[in-house]
Amino acid sequence: MADVANDDVMRPADAAGYREAWEVLERLWQHTVDRARGMNPELLHEQVDGEWSFIQTLRHLVFATDAWVTRAVLGDPSPWDPLDLPHDEMGDEPSVPRDRDARPSLDEVLVLRSDRMTTVRQVIADLTDEKLAAMTEPVLAPGYPEPESYTVSRCLQAVLSEEWEHRLYAERDFDVLEARST
C-alpha cells in the first residue's frame, strides 16, 4: 500500500482526486475487514483505551455517510439506521438513533457498511468539478448535520476524513488487541 504513504491523497482538489481517494479507502478498508474476520469476534466489540470498538467504529462510519452523503448531499431528511452511531460530542437528537450498547455481528454491520459505501461510490462516480463546488440544499428536518447549505466538497471531505482516520485507529487498536491475546 505504498500508494498511501501519507494522507495527502485524502485532501483531493477535484472530482478525479475524490475518485482516487475513495478507491484507496476501499482497498485499505478491505485489508482491515479481512484482518477483523481473522480475529476472535468478541475482540471486535472490545474497546482499547476508551476508544470505540471496531464494530462501533463501523457503525459510526455508517452514521457519517448517512449524515454527510445521504442527508446533506442527497437530501434524505431521515437516512438513519437503528445501528447508526453518532459521535459522542453530538447532543441528543430524538430523530437520530444512538444505541451505543448495541452489539451487532461483524456481518450485520458490514451489510450496512457495504450499502453506504456503494452510495458514496455512486456519488463520487457521478461527480464533476462543477458538482463538487455546488452548494447543497439545506435539509430542514431535525437531524445532523444542521440545516445549512454546504459545498458538496465539504460533505465528501468529511466522509473521507472519517474513513481515513477511523481506519488508522482500527489498525492501531487491532495491534493492541492482538498483542494482548498472545
Structural overview:
With about 180 residues, the protein is mostly helical. The chain has five helices and no strands. The chain has one domain: dinb family like domain (Four Helix Bundle (Hemerythrin (Met), subunit A), Up-down Bundle).
Task: Walk me through the topology.
Elements: H1 15-37, H2 54-71, H3 106-125, H4 129-133, H5 152-180
Helix pairs in contact: 1-3, 1-5, 2-3, 2-5
Give a short synopsis of this structure:
This protein is mostly helical. The protein has one domain: Four Helix Bundle (Hemerythrin (Met), subunit A) (Up-down Bundle).
Low-confidence stretches: 1-5
The percentage helix is: 40-55%
Number of domains: 1
CATH superfamily: dinb family like domain
Largest sheet: none
- What global shape is seen? globular
The CATH architecture can be named as: Up-down Bundle
In the CATH scheme, the class would be Mainly Alpha
Fraction of residues in β-strands = under 5%
Determine the structural class based on helices, strands and strand pairing: mainly alpha
The CATH topology corresponds to Four Helix Bundle (Hemerythrin (Met), subunit A)
